[in-house]
């Protein structure tokens, strides 16, 4: 009877206990809010951690994170909800970037979580760690340095610019209709990367396909990008449950991977049956270069095909989105800073005699001609500083470590390097860091200034620095120069352009522009 009485007393007092707990949590939350009032640094709330910071800043998370890093001295720890995990260190400190990505590189890798989230890339270089990474990077470095591949890639960009990009924009200028330029660049980049990998034309940007939906292969790459972003922003248990149930975005992702595999494995089989002839202008595509690589005797035929598939898909996903993003933000900057465009155009006009016509009066510049266009180079770098295509880089500590500022990092800690914020913090780039000013990249003699990769990390830093940096910049300049010289691009009145919360820095609402032929403008 005594026990029953005690139990009854507990039940009767339960509302009071619950009320007391709620009061305690409310007072703790109020105390936190008052203490941090006026600061952009996320509050750590009871139970939910810093999740309210994410929810309240959806749509402009990158700018919110930049403000938080600026107020916190370039580093803070993000705490996820209780029992869910999701804690990680956020930083934009160049010293931490150099320490983790270069000086103490062996102590940090992408981790199992990243490889699982990005499983569409298979076991390729994007996901590789340790021994596998070193071996694959050697292959990629050799391929990218080969004159036949470099020549094929650069000529492919110029060819696709002349036969697809310029005619498409010329058609839009003649029709006088608004163009969503980011979509144009996505299609153009897809066509270029597809041709570089397979030595075949997809032509998703042809004038005849202007209003057509994406081809299945292109649609599959787009869904893959959306799914990877989804996996980054929700707890791992959520997307793994959706994958197990095969519903929602995870179902579409599985279907997209099946489309990619079907395309790539079919092309590998065709190439095995009928290899492309080697010679001038032939055999320089990525797939041919990889197939010519000496085979590992320990590899089975299936493993070899998987190796080729991962190389092809990894390049396609990386090149397509990153180049499209870089071109989008470059032209947004040029639209909003016409004096920069005028300076670039003046230089291109002086180089006109060395350029090639691509039909009518349209002009496309080759890579050699553009070597002296240093202001265009500076304009591209400045756009990448403010709008890096990959706005953050993620690593996981393989062992306990201490960062240069004394912050202790335990094994398993995830670190998020906010590359987007690095270009917008006064302590890194000066008081004018948020201004688009290509002149900061030029010396008094007009040469392009070098900036260390731990300060300008748009192409990563340390041993994982992008092997395709110079090729990527060359490709951007070929496409940009052709557009600037032949057309005037103007933002549609009232159209707001903002970055989206995504793994690749796309826009939220696209880039709506009017295109006019330069002679008409």
From TrEMBL:
Keywords: Iron, Membrane, Metal-binding, Oxidoreductase, Transmembrane, Transmembrane helix
GO MF annotation terms: heme binding; iron ion binding; monooxygenase activity; oxidoreductase activity, acting on paired donors, with incorporation or reduction of molecular oxygen
Keyword Transmembrane helix belongs to the record: yes
Organism expressing this protein natively: Triticum aestivum
Family per record: Belongs to the cytochrome P450 family.
Pfam families in UniProt: p450
InterPro entries in alphabetical order: Cyt_P450 (IPR001128), Cyt_P450_E_grp-I (IPR002401), Cyt_P450_sf (IPR036396)
Transmembrane helix keyword on record: yes
Source superkingdom: Eukaryota
Protein's UniProt name: Cytochrome P450
